[in-house]
Design goal:
By secondary structure, this protein is an all-beta fold. It contains no helices and eleven strands. The chain has a four-stranded antiparallel sheet with strand order 4-5-6-7, with no helix packed on it.
Length: 128
């Protein structure tokens, strides 16, 4: 699936002929996109400035912050580990791991140096 961020942080899908723009009217949690990530299942994870996280399954959006599932409205830095867990950061709220069923939050109380994480990746040893 090809989604792109353009025109001042808006998200769109190009079908080969024209662009379809996605906004809150289509179900996106916020119109200001910070990050896009396609997972191994083909879902698009969308971080936003003011609405948290949306997941696009190809036809519909699932929004996680607006339903109160995670804290933090500014989200980015998506990563999928070798077990299929999705990791991302939420400004001032640490890092989240989604295992396909639930979210687990990691903060300074769990050993992070800060609650504002700039990047997430998995190394060759499998460490996040």
């Amino acid at each position: 699936m090809k989604l792109i961020v353009n025109d001042g942080c808006r998200i769109s899908k190009f079908n080969g002929n024209e662009f379809e723009f996605f906004t809150t009217k289509n179900g996106l949690t916020d119109n200001n996109v910070t990050d896009l990530y396609e997972d191994s299942q083909g879902n698009i994870w969308i971080g936003t400035f003011y609405g948290g996280v949306s997941k696009y399954e190809g036809k519909t959006f699932t929004n996680f912050t607006k339903e109160g599932i995670i804290e933090g409205i500014e989200t980015y830095n998506f990563c999928e580990d070798d077990k299929g867990n999705i990791w991302f950061s939420a400004k001032n709220h640490g890092v989240y791991r989604y295992d396909g069923k639930e979210f687990t939050q990691f903060t300074m109380e769990d050993g992070l140096a800060t609650n504002t994480i700039q990047s997430i990746f998995q190394d060759k040893k499998g460490q996040i």
